[in-house]
Amino acid sequence: MATLLHIDSSVFPASASASRAVAETFRKAWEEQHPEGTVIYRDLAANPVPHLTADAHTAGFADPSAHTPGQAAAFAGRLELIEEFERADALLIGAPMYNFTIPSTLKAWLDNVALMGRTAGENPSAKGTPVTVIASRGGSYAPGTPREGYEYVQNYLRAVLVDFLGLDLDFIVPELTMAAQNPAMAELIPLFESSRERAHHDAAIRAKSLAERLAA
């Protein structure tokens, strides 16, 4: 039975969050296709993980028998996140764009999970694990748009998730999510609605495909 690690990081509830709503579509399709599977859920907005500390960082490069009490305590929490990450057969991450990049809570989770010589480096322990990122944003930062150069979500996550952690990455990008709330973007509402519909469709298809593949 496959295990899905589902991580949300939006500060808003699903009714007001595109990343949560699309991730929910993915998860429902996954569960329908794979009802006997396991879903591990972390809501980083409701229950943020600690930001990386000096003790948690240095403990990752020291022999556990030599850990100070502070290192041992800090690394225990980090190890829980790492083992949870390694147990997953697939990952689902909600990554809304805040001020051109990911939420700090998601960055904290990544900092804890990325451990050189174990989850990161030449032979990462979760190499090849499929990860689907719902990278929502209020505007559009696609190639050819005026704000293309401000796209620090997909570029950053591709570097960390693929180049560092060795995961098999797929993005789903609901964009222009502020069109319905911002009068200046009113003419973009049809494009937003099309993007939203496509994101939910792609999420359901991706979830079903992954669930079928991992259940085989």
Automatic annotation (TrEMBL):
Q: Which domain of life is it from?
A: Bacteria
Alphabetically ordered keywords of this record: Flavoprotein, FMN, NAD, Oxidoreductase
Domain (Flavodoxin-like fold): give its ranges: 3-173
Q: What class of enzyme is it?
A: oxidoreductase
Q: Catalytic activity, per the record?
A: N,N-dimethyl-1,4-phenylenediamine + anthranilate + 2 NAD(+) = 2-(4-dimethylaminophenyl)diazenylbenzoate + 2 NADH + 2 H(+); 2 a quinone + NADH + H(+) = 2 a 1,4-benzosemiquinone + NAD(+)
- Residues involved in FMN binding: S10, S17, A18, S19, M97, Y98, N99, F100, S136, R137, G138, G139
- How, per the record, is the cofactor bound? Binds 1 FMN per subunit.
Which Pfam family is an annotated match for this chain, by its short name? Flavodoxin_2
The keyword Oxidoreductase belongs to this UniProt entry's keyword annotation: yes
* Cofactor requirement: FMN
| Protein EC | 1.6.5.-, 1.7.1.17
Which Gene3D superfamilies has this protein been placed in? 3.40.50.360
Which family does the record assign?
Belongs to the azoreductase type 1 family.
The record describes the protein's role as: Also exhibits azoreductase activity. Catalyzes the reductive cleavage of the azo bond in aromatic azo compounds to the corresponding amines. Quinone reductase that provides resistance to thiol-specific stress caused by electrophilic quinones.
Quote the subunit structure annotation.
Answer: Homodimer.
Q: What is the official name of this protein in its record?
A: FMN dependent NADH:quinone oxidoreductase
User: Which source organism?
Assistant: Streptomyces atrovirens
The taxonomic lineage of its organism, from the top, reads: Bacteria, Bacillati, Actinomycetota, Actinomycetes, Kitasatosporales
Q: Gene of origin?
A: azoR
